[in-house]
Specification:
There is one protein chain. This protein is α/β, with parallel strands linked by helices. The chain has 4 domains: 136 residues, Ubiquitin-like (UB roll) (Roll); 148 residues, 2-Layer Sandwich (Nucleotidyltransferase, domain 5), CATH 3.30.420.10; 97 residues, Orthogonal Bundle (Endonuclease III, domain 1), CATH 1.10.340.70; 78 residues, no CATH class. The chain is built from 20 helices and 18 strands. Strand 12 and strand 13 form a beta hairpin. The chain is elongated and about 125 Å long. It starts with 9 loop residues before the first strand and ends with a helix. 27% of the residues are buried.
Length: 496
């Protein structure tokens, strides 16, 4: 071996077999080729299934990585029976490892020559028959990857979390995909090694996805799932009645607090096939040219049983202790509306809605947040909105009514139909007529404020056989009456 002379190109001989690859780097001085360096190694794993031309390209890329200092300092002339560089450049569409190989070679001055006599090719082929026993896989990084990763980590990116769950016989599966703004994806699959329903599996997938995003330092998250029930219950649009799902929604709400910005949308099932394949771990999984590495983690207990620290001295303490131990001074009537699930105290509303009982500090945060989100929209009372989104504390109605009363915007834009019914004593016109005209003909009052009030209020009314009905919060219809009919109903009810 000799040190290369500056100013003269280096000559590279490549060789490959079904079991090894090798290369010999030489430099011609005074008509004599002097060896500078030689390397060889075994092929292993997926490389054993490469075609002959791909193994030849593998030898070139491996040599360029191992002898990078020579490739950067000298022009390289490849002498070989095939042209791996031409093979790379002639591909109509470069994907996967072929594209990465081409990018890895782009920084070097490489050319292919065909001399009259191939002097050292036999030596290169001989060296390849005695490969190194060490496993030396290709480096998967490209020039500049380190700087790009550093720049990306300093910015607060918006990630997308897609999730799906599937239940089987005695177990289930969960699939999660985390995607950056640049399109980079992280695929995760979990085996739920415990009995669970489809809805529980969907919640498990969402919780595990949130945990994975939190561990990666994600701050801004967009969530998409094909379970309409889970998405709308998380948003607070659907009420929660199933006791088994209550701990899951509680865990989701707690995990969402770790993110600066988070939103959730419903995705059609037709757009969720890959996640469905991850969740079911079935034969329908399809990949592109390259293999996909999927990390499968077995979970031995539900994620909702994770212990979160919370204050020990609050209004919930005595209720929870008496429900668990049976020791306490509270009556059966006082305890009938409460239930303990996985260590959490829940309140069951008149319609069967389950709401997590929260302490005073969290209640203040929830009250402010939901009031800000729904300010001036009084179609549903504020305390009912809070309860529907899954929260409860004993004074929630009093505090919600007080904050609504003291809010200027809520006072100016009150649009409850009950207000109309309470003021009909001083009106000669039937209060129902504006809603009947709007629902039947689309007619609205001339004043803009009155018109907007009618449109908002009409969402809870409908016509049936010429009669006006109003939907209650639980969806039951109520017939609407005028002043005289109301007096008759009151007289019959109270016996006067």
């Amino acid at each position: 071996m000799v040190a290369p002379v500056t100013g003269k190109p280096l000559i590279l001989y490549l060789t490959s077999t079904t079991r090894s690859i090798g290369a010999l780097l030489v430099q011609e001085v005074d008509g004599t080729e002097r060896p500078v360096y030689y390397i060889s190694r075994k092929v292993h794993g997926a490389e054993e299934r490469y075609t002959a031309i791909e193994r030849h390209c593998l030898a070139l890329v491996f040599t360029a990585q191992k002898l990078r200092h020579y490739f950067l300092s000298f022009p390289i002339q490849i002498i070989t029976k095939c042209d791996p560089v031409r093979f790379l450049l002639s591909r109509p569409a470069l994907t996967g490892r072929v594209a990465r190989w081409l990018l890895a070679l782009a920084e070097f001055d490489i050319s292919c020559v065909t001399p009259k006599a191939i002097k050292c090719q036999a030596l290169a082929e001989l060296l390849a028959q005695f490969p190194s026993g060490q496993c030396e896989p290709l480096e998967d990084c490209l020039p500049g990857d380190g700087f790009e990763a550093l720049a990306t980590s300093t910015d607060e990116q918006h990630w997308t979390l897609s999730f799906d769950g599937a239940a089987g016989s005695g177990s289930g599966g969960a699939g999660v995909v985390l995607q950056t703004e640049e399109g980079d994806r992280v695929h995760l699959a979990y085996k739920l090694d415990f009995p669970c329903s489809n809805n529980e599996a969907e919640y498990e997938a969402l919780i595990l996805g949130l945990i994975a995003a939190k561990e990666r330092g994600v701050k801004h998250l967009r969530i998409a799932g094909d379970s309409k029930l889970v998405v709308l219950q998380t948003e607070g649009i659907y009420a929660l009645k199933e006791p088994t799902l209550a701990p899951y929604r509680t865990t989701v709400q707690k995990l969402m607090k770790f993110f600066k910005g988070v939103s959730i949308i419903h995705k059609p099932r037709s757009e969720n096939r890959f996640l469905d394949a991850l969740a079911t771990l079935g034969a329908r999984t399809e990949f592109g040219e390259d293999r996909a590495c999927i990390e499968i983690v077995k979970m031995f207990e539900p994620s909702a049983v994770e212990d979160f620290a919370e204050p020990t001295e609050d209004w919930r303490g005595s209720i929870k202790i008496q429900l668990v131990t049976g020791v306490g001074h509270l009556s059966t009537a006082e305890l009938s509306s409460f239930i303990v699930l996985h260590g959490e105290l829940y309140h069951r509303g008149p319609q069967g809605w389950l709401a997590r009982c929260i302490c005073a500090k969290e209640a203040e945060e929830v009250l402010d947040r939901i009031h800000i989100d729904n300010c001036a929209d009084n179609e549903i009372a504020l305390y009912r909105r809070i309860h529907r989104q899954g929260y409860y504390w004993p004074t929630m109605k009093k505090e919600a009514d007080l904050i609504t009363k003291n809010c200027t915007r809520c006072s100016l834009y009150m649009a409850q139909p009950e207000c109309l019914m309470a003021n009909t004593d001083n009106q000669e016109v039937d209060w129902r007529q504006v809603y009947i005209d709007y629902l039947r003909e689309g007619a609205l009052p001339t004043e803009r404020a009155e018109s907007a009030r009618v449109v908002r209020g009409a969402r809870r009314f409908f016509l049936e056989k010429g009669l006006l009905f109003r939907r209650t919060l639980d969806g039951m219809p109520q017939v609407c009456v005028d002043k005289e009919q109301a007096e008759e109903v009151l007289a019959k009810t109270h016996g006067t």
